[in-house]
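Hey, resending since the last one bounced:
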Amino acid sequence: TTTSTVSAPPYILIGTLYASSGSYASSSMPEYEGLQLWAKWVNESGGIYVKEYGKKIPVKIVAYDDQSNPTTAQSLYQQLVTVNHVNVLVADFGSVLTAPAVSYANASHVLLWDVTGSSYAFFTNNPYIILTSLPVSPYFVTYVAPFLHSLNITKVAVIYAANDFNAYQDYLISPLFKTYGITAVINESYPTSTSDFSSYIAALENAKPQAVIEFGYPTDDVPFLNQLASSKVCFPMVYTNYPGLMLPLLLSSVGANMNGTFTGAFPPIVVYKPTYGPNLTTFEQIWDSTYPGVAVNYNVLAGFNAGLIIGLAIQDAGTLNQTAIKAAVLNDISGKVITLTGLFNVTSTGAQMGETPAVSQVWVYKNGTSKFTILWPLSVANGTAVYPEPCAP
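The structure tokens again:
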């Protein structure tokens, strides 16, 4: 028998940031709560087994509040590594609050676990990042072109917000259109801060497309869908990003104005069968016992999923060495694990290409409830498209 000469640390320290206030709080807090719930869940079984120490080690979260401020976040990420000496560094929500961690991790050779910062730029020439959930821009659009083709649509109009995330969506859907013989009769960007879409709607109406695609953030989707409904302009199909990603927000700000429109759907709207970790039903029970009466949204699942992937990577590597953990992800986990958020599959630079959203159609009823018909790929479909979509009353 060999006895380990290395003494085990009392905890595996997971360092992260959250935003309790500011513009990202409503997205950041659910993600942070999901990560906390994972820590509680994994510790109930004793923690993560690390072969180097021959035992399970509990996890402990060290977290600071960046208040949605990227400058504050920059110094707090550094503090987690240099002062707290965390074993694992997890980014706050979204690209804006992840960006300061990306540059820091790259410079100091610390592996960064990115939960939902899906800007394509983070993954160019950067070996120190892994996106655990939410695909990078191109994989948001993978299923859109074949779905349009299945409805014999050949003429589309695309407008998109001029930022990294949405511009890449537009750029990367173009070759897919070519493959399926689809022509973009309009392909035009608008400033991300746009709130009046009337001139764009007029131009779209003039082009008479069989489908309109608007790639934006929630702050774009909301006015676009509302103004489209009030203008009484009716297109056979309208596709936007966020109804399938931030449904509660879109229901409260757009409601029936998105009835019959199309979107890419993420869990919990789409349910996957995990090969690792709890399924959605079990997760919801764990969640409800901790946060009773709070609905599960995608960000909660993304936070929990980050923990699942981190735990699996450490267990597989058998050590807390950063390089070994990254190698475990690339060699043994990527492409081989399905969790409650879908397939975990990353490129060699850590960009997530799994979790491609399923194309679906949203139905909103007078009592405020909603239903999604999942349409594409056919392997997860639960119905067929109503095309043309119904016009606003």
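The chain is about 40% helix and 20% strand.

Sorry for the duplicate.
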